[in-house]
Amino acid sequence: MNGNNDTDLFREMMADVAPMSNDIVEPEAKAHKPSEAQLARQLAAQSLNEGDPEYLSLEFARMLKPDDIIAFKRPGVQDGVYRKLRLGKYDIQARLDLHKFSLKDARTEILKFLKQCQKMDIRTVIIVHGKGERSTPPAKLKSFVSQWLEQITDVMCFHSAQRHQGGTGALYVLLKKSQDKKLENRERHLHRTG
C-alpha cells in the first residue's frame, strides 16, 4: 500500500463522521469530599515534628489481647533490619515505661519521648506498656500504643519485645534517622566514592 491509498481509505472511513459542536467539558458543581480511607491516610501521615498530639485518637483503637504479639513494618524497611529488631539484636538506647499512666498522659509521654530521642539521634528504643491483663477492657493501653505508633510516620517499625525485656508487655521501636544523621551518612558515602 502506498501513502495515497491510505489517505483515500481514511477519508472514505470518516465520510459520515460529523465534527462536535462543543468540545468544552463543563465542570461538575459538586465539591470533592475525601473518603474515610483518605482521611485515615491523611491522619497517618503525621510526624513527630508536629507538636499537637490530638491527631492520635483517644476514642478508638483496634483492641488486642494481653498476650498478642504486635508486629508492624513500613514499606521500605529492609527485612534484615526488621528481623534484627524483632530478635532484640539492636542495642536499646532509651526506655519509656508507661505503667501507671492514664491514656491521655501516655499519649503525651510517647510523643515527647520519641521527639527527644530523634533530637538526640537515638533510633532504637523500648516502650513498656504492660500487658493490661487487669485493665478494662483488657490490653487497653497496649492497643492504643500500637495504633499510635502506626500513625507516627517517624516510626519505621516495631515489634513485641523478647521475653527477658518485657515480652508482649513491651515494644522494640525503630525510629527514622534524623536529618543530621542522613546528611552525615550522605557525606560519608560521597567521600568514599569520590
What does this structure look like?
- The chain has 194 residues and is of the alpha+beta class.
- It has six helices and five strands.
- It has a domain at 69-185: Ribosomal Protein S8, Chain: A, domain 1, CATH 3.30.1370.110.
- α4 packs across α5.
- The longest helix has 17 residues, at 103-119.
- The chain has a five-stranded mixed sheet with strand order 1-4-5-3-2, with helices on both faces.
- The N and C termini lie far apart (58 Å).
- Keywords: Endonuclease, Hydrolase, Nuclease.
- This is DNA endonuclease SmrA.
C-alpha termini separation: 58 Å
CATH fold topology of the domain at 69-185: Ribosomal Protein S8, Chain: A, domain 1
CATH class of the domain at 69-185: Alpha Beta
Q: Beta fraction of the residues?
A: 5-15%
Derived structural class: alpha+beta
Radius of gyration from CA coordinates = 27 Å
CATH architecture identity of the domain at 69-185 = 2-Layer Sandwich
How many distinct helices? 6
Strand order of the largest sheet: 1-4-5-3-2
Poorly predicted spans: none
Q: Work out the helicity level.
A: 25-40%
Broad shape: elongated
Topology order in helix (H) and strand (E) letters? HHEHEHEHEEH
Give the mean pLDDT: 85
Largest sheet: 5 strands, mixed
Oligomer: single chain
Instruction: Please provide the count of β strands.
Output: 5
